[in-house]
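FAQ: What does the model actually see?

It sees only this:
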Amino acid sequence: QVQLVESGGGLVQSGGSLTLSCAASGNIFRIIAMGWYRQTPGNERELVATTNQGGATNYADSVKGRFTISRDNVRNAVYLQMNGLKPEDTAVYYCNAYIYTTVTDWKDYWGQGTQVTVSA
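And it is asked to produce this:
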C-alpha cells in the first residue's frame, strides 16, 4: 500500500504565502512524477504544478511566477511554495504521484486534499 499525506493548508490573506507538503510512504519502488492539483466546488480538478524524477517542472499559467514546486527524492516528498496568493487560488489542493511499487507495476496515487483559503 502507498499513502500520500499532505499538510500545510490553511487561511491566509491576499498577497500572503503558504507552503504545502506531501510525503509518500509505503511500498515504493520508484516515484516517476509528483505534483499538485486543485479543485473548487462544481469544477474539475486542475493541474497546478508537476515535477518529474529529473527535476523538470510544469506550471499552470495562472500560477507561474508565484508558485514553486520542489521535490525531495530521499524523503519521497514534494512541496509547493505559494507566494502572492489571490482569492482565486482558494481551493482544495491535492497531491498526486505516479509510483512504481514493483519493476513493472505502477499506479496514480492521490492524497486526501488540503484546503487553502485566501481572503480578500
